[in-house]
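Researcher: Here's the sequence for the chain we discussed earlier.
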Amino acid sequence: MYVGNVNYSDHNKNDVYGRSSSCDEAGEMCQVMLYNDTRNEAFFVVRCLMQTFHHDTQLAIKIMMEAHNNGKAIAEVETAQEAKMHCNQLHSFGLVAEVISI
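Model: Thanks. This is the structure I predict for it:
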């Protein structure tokens, strides 16, 4: 994510773009993991999180900053079906995310 004029990236986009872990059981809880990337500006990521998960601005900024500073952040914990749908939405925006079984 770009924050200001500095471009930070701790994660290789090709590692997780479009990939989902094995969250297949009905009702199984999964994490939607958001990864830092070099293509998307911080404000855009915040807007995508708000639109996808209906997070308020403060939470979306917190998630974006965690991904920016640590290379990844949990965007949401939800059922496998919801997680896969939301992960696909993030991918459609060009964000790097994956579903992880917990």
